[in-house]
Amino acid sequence: MNLSTELRRLRDMDWGELDIKESGGWPFLLQLICCVLVLGLTLAGMYWYLAGPKVEELEQAQREEQRLLNDYRSKAAQAANLPALREQVEELDNRLSGLVAMLPGGPEIPSLIDDISETALDNQLSIDFIRLRSPATQEFYTERPFDIRVQGDYHRIASFIAGVADLPRIVTQHDFSLEPAGDGNRLQLSMLAKTYSYRPPANAEEGAQ
């Protein structure tokens, strides 16, 4: 095959008279170009209709694989930290149990008031009254306020306040009022004290039943 001859035949062709039925007589270069074009279109069509969906499925599978891998790594890290988390939960449960033990139940309120009265008497204070108010129910606890009024000198009153704060049961002190009481150095202390009773969540009570 003479390449220059084939190129000259390709240039001298009348493109308007090409007939597919006479393709066997076309110049070799034209036949070669047509074969390459047909082959390229065939391969492109095969890729579009056959390989394209498979490639998309492969990419989707790779994304799913990466998601599952990340999920596995996250769960593996959680599993590795599980003993430490259980230890922390157990420690928090113990601390909560200790705090709950410091909260008096309803039947223990009279005993707590007796302890406050003894603290006042130990500090040589005279007790005007220790009077319970109506309890206030909150979500996880019941607030039990009571009014206290005692009389004595400044240092003994201060020692009484410290003694109430040091009681085994939790007692918070609010609304202090200190006024002279008669002659001498006697003072009158009025204050609101509060203690608290633990209220288990409603679902815990139902589970216990």
What report would you give on this structure?
The protein has 209 residues and is an alpha+beta fold. It has 2 domains: 75 residues; 90 residues, 2-Layer Sandwich (Alpha-Beta Plaits), CATH 3.30.70. 56% of the residues lie in helices and 20% in strands. Strands 1, 2, 3, 4 and 5 form a 5-stranded antiparallel β-sheet that branches.
Category from helices, strands and their pairing: alpha+beta
CATH class of the largest domain: Alpha Beta
Which sequence of SSEs, written as H and E, runs from N to C?
HHHEEEHEEH
Q: What is the CATH architecture term of the largest domain? A: 2-Layer Sandwich
Mean pLDDT: 80
| Percentage of residues assigned to helices | 55-70%
Overall number of strands: 5
Tell me the CATH superfamily of the largest domain.
Ribosomal protein S6/Translation elongation factor EF1B
Cα-to-Cα separation, first versus last residue: 101 Å
Q: Strand content of the residues, in percent?
A: 15-25%
Largest sheet: 5 strands, antiparallel
Total number of domains: 2
Rg for CA atoms:
47 Å
Low-confidence regions: 204-209
Tell me the overall shape.
Answer: rod-shaped
CATH-defined topology of the largest domain = Alpha-Beta Plaits
